TrEMBL record:
InterPro entries documented for this protein: Aminotrans_3, Aminotrans_3_PPA_site, PyrdxlP-dep_Trfase, PyrdxlP-dep_Trfase_major, PyrdxlP-dep_Trfase_small
Pfam families documented for this protein: Aminotran_3
Highest taxon of source: Bacteria
Gene3D superfamilies: Aspartate Aminotransferase, domain 1 (3.90.1150.10), Type I PLP-dependent aspartate aminotransferase-like (Major domain) (3.40.640.10)
Chain segments annotated as coiled-coil in the UniProt record: none
A molecular function GO annotation: transaminase activity
Keyword Mitochondrion: no
PROSITE patterns: AA_TRANSFER_CLASS_3 (PS00600)
PANTHER family: AMINOTRANSFERASE (PTHR43094), AMINOTRANSFERASE CLASS-III (PTHR43094:SF1)
Source organism (scientific name): Synergistes jonesii
Keywords, in A-Z order: Aminotransferase, Pyridoxal phosphate, Transferase
Name of this chain's protein: Aminotransferase class III
Length: 445
């Protein structure tokens, strides 16, 4: 096993995947696992969806690749139109890449180029402000704007650090305040940082609408994103929403920013975009950004070989067609209500679940040693692993992130099943989770 394939972790006992079917993945021994986190909130339509497979196969038989420097294809146009149709405001311009990190890198470069096109080569606007407790990808550029120290520490000498403000995290407020008396100091922190650096040097601010992999689906107060929008407008700074995880219907709206009627300047998205059927990501940009390039140099100084490749485009077009025809986003909102209510009930009955939070089908919970004081379990107990393993024994895959490793507090988990989940399957997921949590509780509490 893994004789040639270099694993991510030499300490993990990997499950041996054999095949998938709907919400389930089967291992080689024939054991069935409910994919309670869609991989990493990717497999939004579940596994082996016949419509998507047929569409990808059809494209494969027609044209597998045409280099984007020379060729435009109908399938890439169709995919871009389908994505743009779901995006808010005048976010009408799609640029496809191969994944989330590339999407964020693309957004950062577009933000810089926009100001050079608009204000000339002497434009000082180049800094991107990010947030602590965030994840934007694994590449050098995305790590520079993200704030998950565990993932960055070793690589710090390799990149140019960007300034950070605290993230929203009401359960463990950075300012030791309570909402709403806090007056959203976390949003005002952006304005403070802009004033410290000087808006003339800042091109953009980037944030995840709901913090995903570093903190287990942390939802901000409703006023937060409208306040970010207003601050960015006032200082002439582009607002980038990293919707790699939250986009494409995951939170029960097309994009998570739709919950607050905010139109960012750029959305970076991936995961659910092709729902795991092809490696895909992309940005969606507002018209004035693209107009500036069109009327300026005429070319976006960026590109990858697989930009808008026909195979990924076929998957994206089919995924968006399927979502529309089967009202998948509406289902996510409806099933999300049920899932959230069930998770909150499990949380209330558990001695170790400190908080349950989420939107649509992106839910998270945090386990702690003491619910009253919110004290986390000792690191050596590896609570994130204990809970995950207990759920796996029950035939349920969940997404752990140890807050003690990422530096955010307790051990966090995400529950994000495929958006096509049905009511009986929500019930099944909750039953398996409850059994897993109880088993873990007996082991560590
Ligand atoms: N941004 C966010 C919010 C993510 O959750 C992720 C991946 O988990 C990324 C960016 C990076 O995406 P990828 O792993 O496809 O490069």
């Amino acid at each position: 096993m893994h004789q040639y394939l270099f694993p991510r972790s030499f300490k993990t006992n990997y499950l041996e995947a054999d095949y998938g079917d709907g919400l389930y993945i089967y291992d080689k021994a024939g054991k069935k696992y409910l994919d309670g986190c869609s991989g990493a909130l990717i497999s939004n339509l579940g596994h082996r969806n016949k419509d998507i497979i047929a569409a990808v196969e059809k494209q494969f038989a027609k044209l597998e690749f045409a280099h984007p420097s020379r060729w435009r294809t109908d399938i890439a146009e169709e995919a871009a139109a389908a994505v743009a149709e779901t995006a808010p405001g005048d976010l009408d311009n799609v640029w496809f890449v191969s994944g989330g990190s590339e999407a964020v890198e693309t957004a950062l470069k577009l933000a810089r180029q926009y100001y050079v096109e608009r204000d000339g080569e002497g434009s000082g606007k180049h800094v991107t402000i990010g947030r602590w407790n965030s994840y934007h990808g694994s590449t050098i550029g995305t790590m520079a704007v993200a704030g998950s120290m565990a993932r960055r520490r070793m690589f710090l000498p390799l990149f140019k650090e960007s300034p950070k403000i605290p993230s929203t995290y009401c359960y463990r407020c950075h300012f030791c305040k309570r909402y709403p008396q806090c007056g959203l100091l976390c949003a005002h922190a952006l304005e403070e940082m802009i004033q410290i650096i000087g808006p003339q040097y800042i091109s953009s601010f980037i944030a995840e609408p709901i913090v995903g992999s570093t903190a287990g689906a942390v939802v901000p107060p409703d006023e937060y994103w409208p306040m970010l929008r207003e601050i960015c407008d006032r200082y002439d700074i582009l607002l980038i929403a990293d919707e790699v995880m939250t986009g494409c219907g995951r939170t029960g709206k097309n994009f998570c920013v739709d919950h607050w009627n905010v139109v960012p300047d750029i959305i970076a998205t991936a995961k659910g975009m092709a729902a795991g059927y092809m490696p895909t990501g992309g940005i969606i940009a507002r018209n004035h950004l693209i107009e500036a390039i069109k009327n300026g140099s005429g070319a976006f100084m960026h590109g990858h070989t697989y930009n808008g490749n026909p195979m990924s485009a076929a998957a994206v077009a089919a995924v968006f067609r399927y979502m529309k025809e089967h009202k998948v986003v509406e289902n996510a909102a409806k099933m999300g209500e049920l899932l959230g209510a069930g998770l909150k009930k499990i949380g209330e009955g558990s001695a170790i679940i400190g908080e349950v939070r989420g939107k649509g089908l992106m839910w998270g919970f945090e386990v702690v040693k003491d619910k009253a004081s919110k004290e986390p379990f000792e690191k050596k107990l590896a609570a994130a692993n204990v809970v995950t393993r207990a759920c796996i024994e029950e035939g349920l895959i969940i997404y752990p992130s140890s807050g003690q490793i990422t530096g955010t507090g307790g051990d966090n988990f995400m529950i994000g099943p495929p958006l096509v989940i049905t009511e009986p399957q929500v019930k099944e997921l909750l039953e398996k989770l409850k059994a897993g949590i109880e088993k873990a509780e007996n082991a560590i509490a």
